[in-house]
C-alpha cells in the first residue's frame, strides 16, 4: 500500500530490544503526527492517586468496623475498588508505552481502553452491591456511631478532592477518565457518609445511611455507562464518535484526481488517534503523490485524521462524448472525467454568502477551460449538447447563475444584477484554479462576460457573445417583461413544456427531442405543479429599470466593451429583436478585436444545439 508517513522513532542501525527492525515501524514525513505509544498519558498522576486512595481505604475500613456504618463500609469498599481500578489503569499505561513488537506491530495502546472497559464493569458491579445492601438495611437497621462517621467521612472527602484534582489534569486518556469516574463516585460516597453521620448524630435516624448510599449509586451510574460505551466502541474498532464516516467518503471522492473510493475503514488505533485505510481509484499513477498530498491535507483539516494509508489503483477511464451529432467512445488515461456532474462554489454577496452550482464535462485537470453562461431565465443545462461535443478538448463548465437551477436564491432581489454575477464568476474561476478561460455567453451571459473581460487582469482569453450587445432593443425588453417572473404553473408537464416552447420559439426550429433536451430542465415540480426553475424575484431589478437607468446602463456597457482586448465573435440571430444589426455593426466598429456572424431563421437567441452552430463554436475556440 502507498502513502506518506511520519517518522516516529530515532534513527538507528540496530534493532530494538524487542527484536523489531525499527525501519518497519518508521513513518515518513507527511503522515501521522503522533507516536503509537501514548505520550499524553501521565503515570505519575495515577501513581499519586493510587497511593492516596489505597492508604486511606485502610483507615476508613478500620473506622467503619468500629463505627458499624454501612456508609463508611461501602465507601471503604468503594475506595479499595478505586485503588484496584487505579492500579489497573497504571498498569495499562505502563503497558501502552511499550514499543511495538514482532507480535504487536501497533504497540499496546489498546490496553488503556481495555482497562477502562474492565473498570466500568467493576463499577457496575459495585453499584449493584451498594443498592442491594442498602435495601437490606431498611429491613435490618444497624446502629451507627455518627461522630466517627462524620470525622472519617470529612477526612475522606478532602482526600478524594485531592485525588480528583490530580487525575483531572490528564483529560485526554479514556482510561484515566474511567478511573476519575471511580474517584468522583467515591467523593460522592464521602459526602453521603458525611451527611449520614451528621443526621445520625442530630436525629438518630439510621435509614439515612442506606438512602444516601442508593442516591450516590444512581449518580455515578450515568458516567459509568458512558465510559463503558466509549471503551466498548473503541475495542470493537468502531468509527470514532466525532467522525462522520459517510462524509469522509464524500470528501475523498471530491478530491481532484480521485475517481472512486472503496474498502474504506476508519477507526482508532489508540484512544484519540484516528486512522484511515482504503483504496483510491485514479487515472494516472504518476499523479498519485500530488493526489495523496491533497487527501492528507483534507483529512487532517476537515476530520482530524492524520494516520492515513491508501492503496492507489490505476483505472482506464471510458466516457461518452457527442461530436458532430454522433456518439462515440474514447479511452484516455486522464484525471477525473465529469459528465454533467454538479459542484458548488461558495460566493459572497453583501452581508450574506450563497452557493452557485455549476455542471462540468471533461477532465478537470485540462488547462483549457470553457465557461458557458446562460441567459436571464435559463440555466447551465442549456449547454449540455455543446459541452458533450467539446469535452474532449475542453473542460466545459456551465454554471447556474445565482437564483437559477441548483444555485441558491438571494434574500435581497436587487442583488440579481451583473455586478453580483461577475463577482460569482470570478470566484468560480478561482475555485477552478486556472489563469485563463474561454467564454461563451448567451444574452445575459454575454453581458456578464463583457464586464468581466473589461476588468484588469481578466482571465478571459477568447469570448463568443451570443446575441447580445451594449444596447438592448425596447421590443425585446417588452417581450421579456411579459413572462419573466410572471405566474407559470401547470398541473401537467406536457402543457408546461408546450408553453415554455412557445415562449422560446425565437430560439429557432427544433425537433421535439431537441426541445426536451433544451427546455426540459427548465421545469421543476413543486406542490404538485410544474413551475419554472428560477426565483421569480430575478424580475424585480429588471422591472425597476426606468429609461434614465437604461440609458446609463447602456453607456456603461459601451465603455466596458471598448476596453476589451481579446478575440470576440458576436453571433446574432438574423431575426433577433434584442440585438439589432446596427448594434452589431457599431460593436465591430468601436472594437477592432470583434467580428460577427449572423445565423439565418433564428431570433433571440441561437441555442447552440444544432450541429452547424456547435461547429461554429468549435471553429472559433480552436
Automatic annotation (TrEMBL):
It comes from the Bacteria. The keyword Transmembrane helix applies. One of its GO terms (cellular component) is plasma membrane. Residues 1-16 have a biased composition (Basic residues). SUPFAM superfamilies: alpha/beta-Hydrolases (SSF53474), Cation efflux protein cytoplasmic domain-like (SSF160240), Cation efflux protein transmembrane domain-like (SSF161111). It holds the Pfam family Abhydrolase_1. One of its GO terms (molecular function) is zinc ion transmembrane transporter activity. Belongs to the cation diffusion facilitator (CDF) transporter (TC 2.A.4) family. SLC30A subfamily. This is Cation transporter. It comes from Polynucleobacter tropicus.
Amino acid at each position: 500500500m502507498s502513502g506518506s508517513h511520519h517518522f516516529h522513532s530515532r534513527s538507528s542501525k540496530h534493532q530494538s530490544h524487542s527484536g523489531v527492525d525499527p525501519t518497519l515501524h518508521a513513518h515518513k514525513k507527511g503522515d501521522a503526527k503522533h507516536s503509537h505509544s501514548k505520550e499524553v498519558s501521565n503515570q505519575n498522576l495515577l501513581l499519586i492517586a493510587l497511593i492516596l486512595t489505597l492508604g486511606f481505604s485502610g483507615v476508613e475500613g478500620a473506622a467503619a468496623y468500629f463505627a458499624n456504618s454501612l456508609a463508611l463500609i461501602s465507601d471503604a469498599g468503594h475506595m479499595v475498588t478505586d485503588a484496584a481500578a487505579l492500579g489497573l489503569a497504571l498498569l495499562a499505561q505502563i503497558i501502552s508505552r511499550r514499543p511495538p513488537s514482532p507480535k504487536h506491530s501497533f504497540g499496546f495502546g489498546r490496553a488503556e481502553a481495555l482497562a477502562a472497559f474492565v473498570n466500568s464493569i467493576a463499577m457496575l458491579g459495585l453499584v449493584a452491591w451498594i443498592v442491594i445492601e442498602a435495601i437490606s438495611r431498611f429491613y435490618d437497621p444497624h446502629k451507627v456511631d455518627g461522630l466517627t462517621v462524620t470525622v472519617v467521612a470529612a477526612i475522606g472527602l478532602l482526600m478524594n478532592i485531592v485525588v480528583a484534582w490530580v487525575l483531572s489534569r490528564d483529560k485526554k486518556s479514556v482510561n484515566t477518565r474511567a478511573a476519575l469516574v471511580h474517584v468522583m463516585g467515591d467523593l460522592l460516597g464521602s459526602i453521603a457518609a458525611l451527611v449520614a453521620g451528621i443526621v445520625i448524630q442530630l436525629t438518630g435516624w439510621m435509614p439515612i445511611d442506606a438512602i444516601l448510599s442508593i442516591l450516590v449509586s444512581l449518580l455515578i451510574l450515568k458516567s459509568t455507562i458512558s465510559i463503558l460505551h466509549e471503551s466498548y466502541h473503541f475495542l470493537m474498532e468502531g468509527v470514532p464518535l466525532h467522525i462522520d464516516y459517510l462524509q469522509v467518503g464524500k470528501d475523498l471522492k471530491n478530491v481532484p484526481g480521485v475517481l472512486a473510493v472503496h474498502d474504506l475503514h476508519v477507526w482508532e488505533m489508540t484512544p484519540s488517534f484516528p486512522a484511515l485505510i482504503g483504496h483510491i481509484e485514479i487515472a494516472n499513477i504518476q499523479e498519485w503523490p500530488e493526489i495523496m498530498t491533497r487527501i492528507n491535507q483534507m483529512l487532517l483539516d476537515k476530520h482530524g485524521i492524520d494516520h492515513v494509508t491508501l492503496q492507489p489503483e490505476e483505472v482506464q477511464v471510458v466516457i461518452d462524448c457527442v461530436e458532430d451529432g454522433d456518439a462515440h467512445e474514447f479511452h484516455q488515461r486522464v484525471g477525473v472525467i465529469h459528465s454533467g456532474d454538479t459542484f458548488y462554489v461558495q460566493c459572497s454577496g453583501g452581508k450574506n454568502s450563497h452557493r452557485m452550482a455549476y455542471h462540468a464535462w471533461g477532465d478537470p485537470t485540462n488547462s483549457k477551460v470553457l465557461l458557458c453562461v446562460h441567459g436571464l431565465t435559463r440555466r447551465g443545462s442549456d449547454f449540455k449538447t455543446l459541452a458533450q461535443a467539446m469535452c474532449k478538448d475542453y473542460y466545459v463548465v456551465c454554471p447556474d447563475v445565482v437564483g437559477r437551477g441548483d444555485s441558491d436564491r438571494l434574500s435581497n432581489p436587487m442583488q440579481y444584477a451583473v455586478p453580483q454575477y461577475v463577482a460569482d464568476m470570478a470566484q468560480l474561476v478561482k475555485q477552478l484554479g486556472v489563469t485563463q478561460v474561454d467564454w461563451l455567453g448567451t444574452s445575459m451571459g454575454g453581458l456578464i462576460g463583457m464586464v468581466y473581460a473589461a476588468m484588469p487582469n481578466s482571465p478571459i482569453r477568447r469570448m463568443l457573445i451570443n446575441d447580445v450587445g451594449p444596447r438592448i432593443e425596447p421590443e425585446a425588453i417588452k417581450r421579456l417583461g411579459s413572462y419573466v417572473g410572471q405566474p407559470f404553473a401547470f398541473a401537467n408537464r406536457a402543457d408546461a413544456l408546450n408553453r415554455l416552447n412557445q415562449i422560446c420559439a425565437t430560439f429557432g426550429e427544433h425537433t421535439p427531442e431537441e426541445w426536451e433536451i433544451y427546455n426540459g430542465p427548465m421545469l421543476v415540480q413543486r406542490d404538485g405543479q410544474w413551475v419554472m426553475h428560477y426565483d421569480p424575484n430575478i424580475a424585480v431589478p429588471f422591472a425597476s429599470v426606468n429609461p434614465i437607468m437604461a440609458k446609463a446602463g447602456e453607456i456603461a456597457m459601451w465603455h466596458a466593451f471598448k476596453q476589451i482586448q481579446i478575440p470576440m465573435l458576436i453571433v446574432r440571430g438574423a431575426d433577433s429583436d434584442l440585438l439589432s444589426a446596427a448594434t452589431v455593426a457599431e460593436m465591430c466598429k468601436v472594437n477592432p478585436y470583434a467580428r460577427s456572424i449572423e445565423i439565418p431563421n433564428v431570433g433571440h437567441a441561437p441555442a447552440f444545439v444544432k450541429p452547424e452552430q456547435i461547429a461554429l463554436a468549435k471553429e472559433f475556440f480552436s
